[in-house]
Each structure stands twice: as C-alpha cells, then as structure tokens.
Write a structure and sequence with these properties.
It is a single chain. This protein is of the alpha/beta class. The chain contains 11 helices and 22 strands. Strands 1, 2, 3, 4, 5, 6 and 17 form a 7-stranded mixed beta sheet that branches. A 5-stranded parallel beta sheet has the order 8-15-9-10-11. A 5-stranded antiparallel beta sheet has the order 18-19-22-21-20, with helices on both faces. Strand 12 and strand 13 form a beta hairpin. Helix 1 runs parallel beside helix 7 and helix 3 crosses helix 5. The termini are far apart. Its cofactor is FAD. This is Dihydrolipoyl dehydrogenase. It comes from Lentisphaera profundi. GO terms for molecular function: dihydrolipoyl dehydrogenase (NADH) activity.
C-alpha cells in the first residue's frame, strides 16, 4: 500500500487546481480519476454549449435583420456543418486542458476509480489500496435522474450527450428550465427545432427576483412553449418517438410526440459513489459532506471538498478557486486558513441574457431596489434588443451596492461591472461618479443607480 500526504479524487477543474496547490506546498500528492478527462466545462459544459448557442443566435440574427429594413431570404441551417463546428472547437478546447494534464507525471495520475475503506484508505477499482493524511474530494457531478422519463429512456439525452447528435431534431421536449435547459432549449429552437420547455417549481434560469422571473418567463414563452409549472402525466416510447401526456396551458390535457427529450433537471454530486459511509465524515441534508465555503474543510476533519462535488455553485471560476483553497489547506492541515472568495457572479447565455450578482433577492432584511427597464433604454432600442429588466439591491441604511439581478441585453458585461463594484464595497454615490458614455447600454445601469440612490434617500 502506497502512502501520500494528499490524495485528490477527481481530475476536473477543481481537482487539477487542488493537486497543483498541494505540490506547490512540497507535499507528495496524486490525482485519482477513472472517468473521461478534460473537465466538464470543456467537454460537455460551458464551451460546447456556447458554440451551439452562437450558431443559433447567428441564425436568429439573420431573421431579425428585417426589422432594420434589411431584406434577407430565410437562412438554411446546415445541421452537419453546425454540429461539426461544435465538436471540432469542443475537442480543441479539451485538447488545451489535456496538454496541462499530460504534464502531470504518469505516476501521479491514477486512472482508476476509488472507494473509501476507512478514514485514511481508499481501494482502487483495480484492487490496489492507497492511503493519505488528507483527501480532496473533487469528483464532480452527473445529471439528475428523472424517474418519469424512464418510459422513453433511450430517447432521453442529458447535456453530457447532446453534443453528439447528428442533426437538429424536429421536435424536442426539455425537462428543466434552469441554466442548461434554458440555454440549450432556446438554441435548439433557434436552429429550427419545435421546443417544449417544462419545469415544476416555477423557476427559470436561476432567477430569484420574482418580478424579473415573471417578466423573463413571459418573454421566453413568446419565443417557444414554456411552462415552468407543468403537469406531466406520463412519458412513454412509441413508434420510435417519445410520447408525453401533459396539461397544455391552452389546449388542456394532450399527448405530443418528440424526437428526443433533453433532461436538464440539475446535477447531483458524485460523492455518493465514494462509500463515504466507511469514514467519519458528516453528511449534510443534501447527502453531501458538510463543509465550510471559506476553507473547503469538511467539519474539522482531514477531508476537503471542491467544485461540483459540493453541490453548491457549479461554475468553473468557483471550482477553480475552491480547488486552490482545498489543495492548500489539505497540504497544510491541521493548519487551515480561509481562502479568497469572490463576489458571486452567475450568467446564463440565453437571449436576453441573465446575470445574478452578489446578494440574492431573498437574503436581505430590509431590501431597497433600484430599477430600470430596457424597453425604453436608448442603445437597446437602437440595436433592437430592448427587452428586459435590471434590479439593483441595497440594504436599508447602507448606501453600498450589494447585489443585482439582470434579464436583458449585455447582461454578461453589465454583470461583471456590477460584481467588481460590489466586491470593492463601493457606494451608489461613488459608482455614479464613474464615467458613463453615450449612447451605451451602461446608461441603463446609471438609470438604475439613480433610482436606487433616490430610494435610499427616502428611507
């Protein structure tokens, strides 16, 4: 049995950063991963999805050119060319990640799966046993199983498989209006598929602000069928199609057939495959290890967790930061220090885009909101992208900008500007002293700041 200072289980974004941090501290460390390498983001997440979205938006832009007086013929979607580019560029991004993995010494990258025997020992799928003083759990996540879809199982695809399809389907049902379902559902719709987007809880795109959530839900429903509180009675396979029996918002209970179903109902941590019951680790109510998000330590134990495995914020930049913190603290254990955490920033690459920054709507004791609508905002109307709302958040008695929710044009860029100002602890008055050019979408941010300033002056 071989001994290490630190064993990192999982060689994704979080695991790679944890391993590098442990090595930087002069510790003996190894990575264990029996699955496909290349990180979730590069293989099946952010990069291939954005490639598909870009193709879809290009097709949509040609159709929309007529509003500017540009007469165009209806564009033709070449499925093979679209999907070929998605896979080619996807593989290129994966290749860049693999270059970094290839630089890891062969003896430090163990291509097997691991299960815990006790607090300090794992058994590999090949039979060997390894021990370590500390462990970093960075095993990532997998798509959540939706039992009602079992009746058409071989026609159900997750985001882990959708980029391997050979052509854009005629009809698609999307289960889950979260980030993945919304992005891919809209992309498939704009590439010619007839899409039905189903949810249960009423949420969409991770939007927490109820006014913006209702606005966004209506906006997407104008483009493709969207029901965020759907009643699905049954799903079965018949004649090579998926048959869904559901309550249509206008037609009542109906049955419709689909070429396939995209399941995007969230992801679950892979920690349940580690046999953590053989250790002393304490699990949270979500059946994943309870941990500190400042140190990534599980309780006061020698276990640390990072990335999607913690079932918290499945974002690449968060996974990277968490891996660094977990790896360093695993190497210096029992000395454990809080790591640097950034202002929360989440972006959905739908159209309009969605951005969530800093404190969320429901986290305030006495919330003060500054509002702007993009419907009348100058530059947005010029570009024909005048749809959306932005809310800026502050706490009563405090003039600092604390957070924001955006559904609108250029939300990915506005979100960054707001996140930077929130992290710097700037007040609304200080931000309004910054330069604003004309005519730009950022003037909408200024309008919302002015509204927030007025609201703060009145409380």
């Amino acid at each position: 049995m071989k001994d290490y200072d630190v064993l990192v289980i999982g060689a994704g974004t979080a695991g790679l950063n944890a391993y590098r941090q442990a090595k930087a501290q002069g510790k003996t460390a190894a990575l264990i991963d029996g699955g496909p390498l290349g990180t979730t983001c590069a293989r099946v997440g952010c990069m291939p999805s954005k490639l598909l979205i870009s193709a879809a938006n290009a097709n949509h832009a040609v159709k929309k050119a007529r509003m500017f007086g540009i007469e165009t013929a209806d564009p033709v979607v070449n499925d093979e060319a679209v999907l070929k580019r998605v896979r080619f560029e996807r593989d290129r991004f994966v290749g860049f990640v693999m270059e970094g993995i290839d630089n890891i010494p062969e003896e430090h990258l163990i291509r097997e799966y691991a299960e815990f025997i006790d607090d300090h020992t794992v058994q590999l799928s090949g039979g060997r046993k390894l021990s370590a003083k500390t462990f970093v759990l960075a095993v990532g996540s997998r798509p959540r199983h939706v039992p009602i879809l079992d009746g058409a199982e071989d026609l159900v695809l997750s985001s882990d498989h959708i980029f391997e399809i050979e052509k854009i389907p005629e009809r698609v049902a999307v289960f889950g209006p979260g980030v993945i379902g919304l992005e891919l559902g809209q992309a498939l719709s704009r590439l010619g598929a007839d899409v039905r987007l189903f949810g249960r809880s009423g949420s969409i795109g991770g939007i927490r602000d109820p006014e913006i959530r209702d606005y966004a839900t209506k906006a997407f429903a104008e483009e493709f069928y969207t029901d965020t509180k759907a009643t699905i009675h049954s799903v079965r396979k018949e004649g090579g199609k998926a048959i869904i029996n559901y309550d249509h918002k206008e037609k009542g209970r109906i049955e419709e057939s689909f070429d396939f179903i995209l399941t995007a109902s969230g992801r679950v941590s892979n920690t349940d495959r580690l046999k953590l019951e053989n250790t002393s680790i304490v699990l949270s109510h979500r059946k994943v290890p309870a941990y500190s998000n400042s140190t990534m330590q599980c309780g006061d134990s020698h276990f640390f967790i990072a990335g999607d495995a913690n079932d918290e914020i499945p974002l690449l930049h968060e996974a990277s930061d968490e891996g660094k913190i977990a790896g360093k603290n695993a190497a210096t254990f029992p000395k454990v220090d809080p790591g640097h955490r950034r202002t929360q920033l989440g972006i959905v690459f739908s159209d309009p885009e969605i951005a969530s920054i800093g404190q969320s709507y429901e986290s305030f004791d006495e919330l003060v909101i500054g509002r702007v609508s993009f419907e009348g905002q100058g530059r947005s109307r010029v570009m024909g992208k005048n749809k959306g709302l932005m809310h800026l958040y502050a706490e009563k008695g405090d003039r600092r900008l604390r957070g924001a929710q955006i559904f609108g044009p250029s939300a990915e860029h506005l979100g960054h500007l707001i996140a930077w100002t929130v992290q710097q602890g700037l007040t609304v008055d200080q931000i309004l002293e910054m330069p604003f050019y004309h005519p730009v979408i950022e003037e909408g941010l200024r309008t919302a700041l002015q509204d927030l300033q007025k609201e703060l002056d009145q409380v």
